[in-house]
TrEMBL record:
It comes from the Bacteria. It comes from Fervidicola ferrireducens. One of its GO terms (biological process) is water-soluble vitamin biosynthetic process. One of its GO terms (molecular function) is 4 iron, 4 sulfur cluster binding. Residues 49-269 form the Radical SAM core domain. This is Biotin synthase. PANTHER family: 3-METHYLORNITHINE SYNTHASE, BIOTIN SYNTHASE. NCBIfam families: rSAM_HydE. [4Fe-4S] cluster binds at residues 63, 67, 70. Keywords: 4Fe-4S, Iron, Iron-sulfur, Metal-binding, S-adenosyl-L-methionine, Transferase. It holds the Pfam family Radical_SAM. Binds 1 [4Fe-4S] cluster. The cluster is coordinated with 3 cysteines and an exchangeable S-adenosyl-L-methionine. (3R)-3-methyl-D-ornithine binds at residue 137. Its EC number is 2.8.1.6.
Amino acid sequence: MKVKKILEKAYYENNLTKDEIKLLLIAEGEDKDLLFKTADRVRKEHIGDEVFLRGLIEFSSYCKNDCFYCGLRRSNLSAQRYRMQEDEIVEVAKRAYQMGYRTVVLQSGEDMYYTKDRLCSIIKKIKRVVDVAITLSIGERSYDEYKAFKDAGADRFLMRFETSNEKLYRKYHPGMSFENRIECLKWLKKLGYELGTGFLIGLPGQTLDDLAQDIILVKELDADMIGIGPFIPHPQTPLKDAKEGSVDLTLKSIAILRLLIPDANIPATTALGTLDPLGRQKGLMCGANIVMPNVNSLEYKLKYELYPGKICINEDATKCRGCIESIIVSLGRKVGQGKGQSRHYKRVSVS
Ligand code: SAM
Ligand code: SF4
Ligand code: FES
């Protein structure tokens, strides 16, 4: 009964207290079903049945940071490093366009080889050659750099804050600062990017209270896109023996955030599909409306190893494109046409 009341409040007010969020995070049985059903209904009412695809181009596996959980961390000496050159990146973007993608996500470790000028040139070239929205996911830079990328044509930016617990943040991100991360996210918003952020589920030491606070922080940052994924231990990192994140808590977090920001774009992430063979389908049925298949060649896919066991690692990009479409259709949904701009962004930027 209590959960039903909380869901009614979330549905009408798009707001919840931390305690209410915690109750939803521990919901089981009928209560959990009702949470997922309500989130699915809200997704349908605000977004419809279209699932938008993003072509993910992981263009560099070099990283200057040392995040405890990530296989690309600089201290992982057995990581395989590569950098794609400008023409190669533009070629892959072209191929993605030919496969029907209307958004490409340029993602990498924090790799300063890609200077402001280099990245601007890549963005401009892609925009000249194909009509796609460009999302950057390249980590922390200066305000000036973010501005230059926006002026060059970048549309969106994804950067998770990973955890809102500052103590945990400090522990798992040596040499980095939570304050700076949040400042970067605020700059990106101010510069007019469609802003994506989110967090990891299941970092060792993370409590239910932390998770509820993570959800509140996404709402406070007024994200247009929300990326949430379970932590998956990588054998070459300090967290190699830690337990993986919970699929159940990931799905519940997706559902709660759909209720709090009804018109945001929310992906069913690859990490979710890696821990559960039906993870992406489950995500799409409890609030998610985006999938981000990798469009790189097999050689690069294998080398960009954030965590082991990633799905689609041996599949060719054309095969994934077909596979993901059949998944979407099997759920009674359809592949979105066009760039799939976040409705939240559209609504907020015109009001
Ligand atoms: N370097 C950029 C950054 O950190 O924002 C972008 C690339 S980074 C690889 C993208 C995301 O991968 C991170 O935000 C992090 O949440 C996720 N990630 C890294 N290691 C992971 C792991 N072991 N399990 C699950 N997700 C992971
Ligand atoms: Fe680098 Fe991003 Fe991995 Fe951290 S999560 S080590 S910043 S690639
Ligand atoms: Fe890659 Fe199914 S989406 S194999």
